[in-house]
Amino acid sequence: MSGQGGAGGQGGTGGTGPRLADLSVGDELPVMTKNASRAQLFLYSAASFNPHRIHYDREYAAVEGHPDILVHGPLQGSWLTQYLTDWIGPRARLRAVTWQNRASAFPEQDLEFHGRVTAVHLERNEVEVEVWEQTADGAVLMPGTATVFLPE
Amino acid sequence: MGGLGGVCSADMATSLIPDETLARVGELLAEPVTVTIDRRESQRYALAVGDENPVYFDEEAARAARHRTIIAPPTFVTHAIVPPRSNDQLRTDGLWRDGSGVRLAVARMMFGGEEWDFLEPVCVGDRITAETRLAGVDQKDGSKGPFVRVVRETTFTNQDGTVVARSRQIGIAR
Questions:
Q1: Which residue, A126, A134, A149, is CA-closest to A80?
Q2: Which of B92, B114, B144 is the best residue to mutate to test the A interface, defined by the most A CB atoms within 10 Å of its own CB?
Q3: Most buried among A74, A100, A148, B2, by the most CB within 10 A?
Q4: What's the gap in Å between the CA of B82 and the closest CA on chain A?
Q5: Which string of DSSP letters, residue by residue, matches A40-64?
Q6: On the CB side of B147, how many CA atoms lie within 13 Å of its CA?
Q7: Other beta carbons less than 10 A from residue B5's beta carbon
Q8: Which chain A residues have a beta carbon less than 8 Å from that of B95?
Q9: For each successive 10 residues of chain B (174 residues), what is the average pLDDT?
Q10: pLDDT at A65 over 70
């Protein structure tokens, strides 16, 4: 049983991840927190060949009405897939994910990833979860959904 | 008619979507792009994200996870297909000229979200062909004024002809 509402441990670094039979609707995933430095955002711009100035040039970001440089939408999306693949472990598969970038995320800000099981399909080894990124005080920046495949 | 859900009616005088763009819905936005998934580019991407999952770095870990070889992070394919372009194609905001492939009467582009289906893992060394279509474009009224929602759908196919992923990227222009 997942007793305390937890839905299994971190699997990404070699663990086994959650077992399908142990999961129930409403189970919460362990929280992951990210906090990007300005240098990391710059590195992400470079690694994704994305020269958009709102991600590294604070003066220019202000021209577009932003109080600071912004965390890239696709970076937050990749954090979300990391959150899911870390949870399910290496033998499981991330089948689908959706997310909406609703509000801006900034560097040097704690960004929490949360999730909750919304459906368990024992017959096809799939679990659906709702996931979201929020600030430390609970403002949701990026809601999403995912489907994962958990082998026996 | 119209107006439901903030979708503007066709008679709106201030349409931000040129007719030529509306006419392109369903069309390919560019010629298909084929790239080889490069280990260093993939690992640089994973490190910039801060995702050091061993299946992206270690052959044995990848095999233990039942992959052919090292895989790339799930959404890396969308970055792998970004074409190399020269500096003289940069706009003052840092975006590429005509980077979207979609003409609009507004220029400021924000990222609205994505929807992905991951059908097969993408391995380092795979030859991936991407085809991107304009799946939809519509104008809406937001709290900060009108904006245009552009949906681009990309299908990623590997060297065996297997579709490995599909993405729908939502761009917000205002």
A1: A134
A2: B114
A3: A148
A4: 7
A5: HHHHHHHHTT---GGGT-HHHHHHT
A6: 16
A7: 8
A8: 51-52
A9: 39 73 88 97 98 98 97 98 91 80 77 95 98 93 89 97 97 88
A10: yes
ipTM of the complex: 0.92
The full set of domain ranges for chain A reads 20-36+72-149
A23 burial class (0-12, 13-18, 19+ CB within 10 angstroms)? buried
Q: Could you report the per-residue pLDDT of A85-133, keeping only the tens digit for each?
A: 999 999 999 999 999 999 999 999 999 999 999 999 999 999 999 999 9
Put simply, whether A54 touches B (Cβ < 8 Å) is yes
Which residue of B78, B111, B154, B166 is the best one to mutate when testing the A interface, meaning the one whose CB has the most A CBs within 10 A? B111
Q: Which residue among B49, B66, B96 sits closest to A82, beta carbon to beta carbon? A: B49
* The CATH fold of domain A20-36+72-149: Thiol Ester Dehydrase; Chain A (3.10.129)
Which residues from B are below 8 Å from A90, CB to CB?
A: 53-55, 61, 64-65
pTM metric for this prediction: 0.89
* Residue B7 at interface with chain A, using a CB cutoff of 8 Å: no
| Residues A20-33: tens digit of each pLDDT | 999 999 999 999 99
Backbone angles phi, psi at B73, to 5 degrees: -55, 150
Six-digit token string for B87: 């500096």
Which chain A residue has its CA at the smallest distance from B90's CA?
A51
Set out the domains of chain B in order of their start, with CATH numbers: 15-83+91-173 (3.10.129.10)
